[in-house]
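Retro notes, structure queue

What went well: the backlog is down to a handful. What didn't: a couple of records were mislabeled last round, so from now on we paste the full input next to the output in the thread. Example, using YtxH domain-containing protein from Flagellimonas sediminis:
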Amino acid sequence: MSSNTGNIVTALVTGAIVGAGVGILYAPDKGTKTRKKIKKSAVKAKNDLADTISNAKNEFHKTAEAKKIEFEEKLEDTLSTMSYKADDIIVALERKLEDLREKNAQLQK
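Corresponding output:
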């Protein structure tokens, strides 16, 4: 879930809580009914917020896992490329060493 989506959801939940609270406080009901409505709204808001947090957490875990897999693949590709380059360097160095041995052998004669 992107940061903007999280902010929008948080704003919507907060707006719903405030709106429900104001609506209940101005409703022409008895105090016990009003308190029950407030409690019910608070529980609903708590559940909505818990769901939003849970969804955001799940999205974060999915994104983190995808990035981990992507990183591991790139690392494996890089290590593989480095291995081939190292082999090429070793072959070139072995050729150079053989050339130097031949030159040294000629100089020794």
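Agreed that this is the format going forward. Reviewer comment attached to the example: The longest helix spans residues 31-108.
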